[in-house]
Automatic annotation (TrEMBL):
Lineage per the UniProt record: Bacteria, Bacillati, Bacillota, Clostridia, Eubacteriales
Name recorded for this polypeptide: Vitamin B12 dependent methionine synthase, activation region
Superkingdom of the organism of origin: Bacteria
Protein's organism: Desulforamulus reducens (strain ATCC BAA-1160 / DSM 100696 / MI-1)
A GO term, aspect molecular function: methionine synthase activity
């Protein structure tokens, strides 16, 4: 399923979060104005799109097979109660990547860092929007979503990225990955949602991460 236009909202608070600013009250008015201006400029650089496929899950001994291509160990996996999954890829496009690079080339590093944070917030919001849309549809079938599980998350090696991206159909929206498992465009995400007849005890990807002191924890 192609999702050509995903609505996203850029939260200023989340931009601050990705900038590592925990106390906005300590930021001077000049910097606050610059951040706001970059957020406004960044909105027109975004082209949020996505693609997804439904795939079966197969269980054998202590492993989970996702559409015959991806093998995961079942231990501690919240997919073990699922019968099917959605494999999703989203991106906000390459334009924002190029603008970030231009800003750094011109010596405008601060604006470049802010714009990079805007892109991160945008692609995370695009992913969340897809999850919300799918959750509403699948609830009509009596199914509940697991948190997003992506390559590099706990329980899924980063080496799975090319296979997950292929299953999602990422190439159709011009998402690729290089030999270092970096996604191109950089502001892209690829993940799996499991669907179960029982609600998951986890609700967000951070729920099953033990790093409770992470500044990006939601």
């Amino acid at each position: 399923m192609l999702l050509p236009q995903i609505p996203v909202t850029i939260s200023k608070d989340k931009v601050f979060l990705y900038l590592g600013i925990n106390d906005q009250g300590k930021v001077n008015s000049e910097m606050l104005e610059q951040i706001q201006q970059v957020i406004q400029a960044g909105r027109v650089l975004l082209s949020p799109t996505g693609i997804l496929n439904q795939v079966p899950l197969r269980f054998h001994e202590k492993s989970i097979f996702i559409s015959h291509d991806i093998k995961l160990r079942m231990k501690n996996s919240f997919l073990k109660n699922c019968t099917t999954a959605s494999v999703v890829a989203v991106t906000v496009g390459e334009t924002i990547d190029k603008e970030v690079a231009k800003l750094f080339e011109k010596g405008e590093a601060t604006s470049g860092i802010i714009l990079d944070a805007v892109g991160t917030v945008a692609v995370e919001e695009a992913a969340d929007q897809v999850v919300r849309m799918l959750s509403q549809q699948m609830r009509l079938k009596g199914l509940f979503a697991t948190p997003r599980l992506g390559p590099g998350y706990q329980g899924m090696p980063i080496e799975c990225l090319p296979e997950v991206l292929y299953l999602a159909g990422g190439g159709k929206i011009k998402i690729t990955t290089n030999e270092y498992y970096q996604m191109i465009p950089a502001k892209s995400l690829c993940f799996i949602l499991g669907w179960s007849s029982q609600p998951s005890k986890y609700h967000k990807k951070c729920d099953f991460c033990h790093k409770t002191d992470c500044q990006y924890r939601s």
